[in-house]
Amino acid sequence: MPELPEVEALAFFLRENAVGRVVTRIDVASLTVLKTVDPPPTQLHGRALTGAGRHGKYLDLDCEGLHLVVHLARAGWLRWSDALPSAPPRPGRGPVALRVRLSETAADDTAADAAGGGVVRGPGFDLTEAGTKKGLAVWIVRDPPEVPGIAKLGPDALDVDREGWARILHGSSARLKTALVDQSVVAGIGNAYSDEILHTARLSPYATAGKLSGEALDRLADAVNDVLTSAVERSVGQKAARLKGEKRSGLRVHGRAGLPCPVCGDTVREVSFADRAFQYCPTCQTGGKTLADRRLSRLLK
């Protein structure tokens, strides 16, 4: 799943390559991906893309006051093309859920064609989703907080300092891993980077969030800043197609179950749930204790 660093990098890429161009056409290939009906997609035709930003893991494209907001979910992605095919994507065929066509240049006079509904060959991007479990979502709104998920977001993870973490986690009985990925607690951290943050901070995923010592809070705050800032620096400036590989290359424990920990050499372990898993190092994070894998435990009964 794209998290804060990848969405920040996508926003940067679009600011560099798309902002200033005119939306000439939007093709919706999957009706289920569009979560709003008013304004309709045609209201974006002829509008210039004036900004690209982020709210947690939501991508926000400002089109002269109308916002195209995207949540890529677990398997969604943005695929840029310098020359999209002129034919619209076929509904129900392939991974493309929505296509945004843009003018050739910022000064292009294609706005009139766009407003009239004409299809103009040019650059743009596809929103795609792999697999059968669909979660990719798009909203067209006048104000980003109209998107329910954005309205519920906690503070951005890169804006929270040590004192902020103390306030956020105070009194929480949640496991630390659960608190880190709860977007209403703090926005932008997902499954992968929470594993990396906890490993860097040398904290157990099962530690009680509201019972961290002052020293543990120091390590957590430093780890969040270090892991996310480093990932943003690696990702920003990369082409959209390279971001997934860049993310994987920077991970030390997430997705590396069975491999040696790069810090201590112990074997990275995994705890699996119904639809996801997390990874950790027993020596670095849990005092050598192996956490119970409930899915495996049920199989052994």
Can you give a write-up of this model?
By secondary structure, the protein is of the alpha+beta class. It folds into two domains: 148 residues, MutM-like, N-terminal (N-terminal domain of MutM-like DNA repair proteins, Alpha-Beta Barrel), CATH 3.20.190.10; 144 residues, Orthogonal Bundle (Helicase, Ruva Protein, domain 3). It contains ten helices and ten strands. The strands form three sheets. The protein has a four-stranded antiparallel β-sheet with strand order 1-6-7-5. It has a four-stranded antiparallel β-sheet with strand order 2-3-4-8, covered by helices on one side. The longest helix is centred in the last third of the chain and has 22 residues. Keywords: DNA damage, DNA repair, DNA-binding, Glycosidase, Hydrolase, Lyase, Metal-binding, Multifunctional enzyme, Zinc, Zinc-finger. GO terms for molecular function: 8-oxo-7,8-dihydroguanine DNA N-glycosylase activity; class I DNA-(apurinic or apyrimidinic site) endonuclease activity; damaged DNA binding; zinc ion binding.
